[in-house]
């Protein structure tokens, strides 16, 4: 299942619409920061997401891990980029061991029109 989290309407645009008494979506697409997060792993208390930022491509493929005791960003080589939690060594190893699968998902997510069937196929391998 593709889980997307979108942030694409600037606060000022929303405030302007509300103040005018006509809350509505802007007529044209908003440019700027917009983030889409694809849930690639969800087992127990562990969630892993690959984010796509539409205002520019990430420079280093990585995954965002959420656990009850913290969050972290880990490169596909298993290198901790940010954050921490107790199981960091175990999770970093898990990420590095699945580099091939995660890279395919990363590449697909960052396409202009990602193919959900490709993402789903490779998610099953995780």
Properties at a glance:
disordered N terminus, about 130 residues, 4 helices, 5 strands, 5-stranded antiparallel beta sheet, globular, alpha+beta, single chain
Rg over CA atoms, rounded to whole Å, is: 17 Å
User: What is the end-to-end distance?
Assistant: 14 Å
Content of β-strand? 25-35%
Mean pLDDT: 75
* Structural class estimated from helices and strands: alpha+beta
Using DSSP, what is the number of strands? Answer: 5
List low-confidence stretches. 1-9, 22-34
The number of helices is 4
Q: SSE order, as H and E?
A: HEEEEEHHH
Give an overview in words.
There is one protein chain. The protein is α+β, with helices and mostly antiparallel strands and 126 residues long. It has a domain at 37-123. It is 30% helix and 26% strand. The model is unreliable at 1-9 and 22-34 (pLDDT under 50).
Describe the secondary-structure layout.
Elements: H1 11-19, E1 35-43, E2 46-53, E3 62-67, E4 70-75, E5 80-83, H2 88-97, H3 99-109, H4 116-123
Helix pairs in contact: 3-4
Task: Summarize the model shown.
The chain is α+β, with helices and mostly antiparallel strands and 126 residues long.
